[in-house]
Amino acid sequence: MVGAIVAGATESLVHAEIPPQQKEQVPGYFRMQLGQFEVTALYDGFVDIDATLLGGVSEKTIQSSLVQSYLTYAKPIQTAVNAYLVHTKEHVILVDTGTAKLFGANLGFVIENLRAAGYEPSQIDTILLTHLHPDHAGGLLAQNGEMAFPNAQVFVSRADADYWLSEIEATRAPKDQQALFKMSRDAVAPYIASGKLTIFQAGQKIRDGVAAISAPGHTPGHTAYLFSSRDQHLLVWGDIVHNVAVQFPHPEVAIEFDWDKKTAVASRRALLALSGVQKYWVAGAHIPFPGIGRISVDKKQGYRWVPAEYRLFPDVR
Hints:
The protein has helices at 2-15, 59-68, 110-116, 134-137, 158-164, 167-172, 178-193, 244-247, 261-278, and strands at 29-34, 37-49, 54-55, 77-87, 92-95, 126-128, 153-157, 197-200, 210-214, 223-229, 232-236, 254-255, 281-283, 292-298, 302-307. It is α/β, with parallel strands linked by helices. The strands form three sheets. It has a seven-stranded mixed sheet with strand order 1-2-4-5-6-7-8. A six-stranded mixed sheet has the order 9-10-11-13-14-15. A two-stranded antiparallel sheet has the order 3-12.
C-alpha cells in the first residue's frame, strides 16, 4: 500500500506542470532611515570597467586585491551606477541622476526605479550633482530632450560648471573626451533656460541638514554631500571609490577617469579618514548596489567596506 502511494505521488510530480523561470529582477531600490530623513538608493544599472584603468600601485598588488573578491585582472569588472533620493520632510532631494540611455541598455533605470520606490520625477524639488560626468548628469534629460525633473532646482559646484560647461575647455580637451563636454552641456541646457540651475561656491548652504563638502580630483569641482538628522549622518560621496576590492585597502590607487589623480587620491584619503573616524554612513555612486555602508579602519589592511544590512523599514513618526 505504501509503495503504491509513493509511486502515485512520483507519477503526479512527473506530470505536474513546471512553471517557467522568472527572468525579471526585483526593482532596484533600497530604503533606510537616517534620523528623520528617508534615504532611498536607486539603481541606474552597471558598466564594465577594465582593471587596467586602475593605477598607482603594482599590477601584482591590484591582482591580489581583486582575487580576494573573486575578481580577475583579465576580465572587465561590473561597476554599479547608483543615485540617492533623500526625503527630508521639507525637500525631496536627488543626488545624481544616472545616465539615461547615453551608454547603452544596461544603464538608465533611475526614473523607473524611482517610480517603483513610490515617487514621481515631478516630486523632486532639488537635484545635487556630485559632478557633471554624463553618468551622473545624463539622467537630467527625458528621452524627448526635455527636463526629466521639471520642478527641480539643480545644484552644481562652480569649479565643475566652469570646466564642463565651457566650450573653451572642451576644445582644449583630447578629442576622445570632447563628446563628454557636449553631453554635460546638453544635460543642463533646459534647466539653465528655465532658471533652474544654481551654481554654488564651496561652503555655500544648500538645504537644511545638507552640507556640501569639496572633494576635487575626479573632476575639478567634485563634491560630496553630508546629510545630517538627529545625530545621524550620511555622506553621499559620488566617485571617491570606483572599485571596492582595490581602493579601500589601497586608497593610493587612482583611475584613468580622474581629472587630477594626485588630488583625487588626497580627497579619497581625506573622506575615508573622516567617514571612518566619525562612523558616518556612506553612499557611493560606484559601490555595489545599494552602495550604502560604513568604513572600517584596519591598521594593517587600510580600510574595509562594511555594507548596510537589509532590514524592515522602521515606522518613524
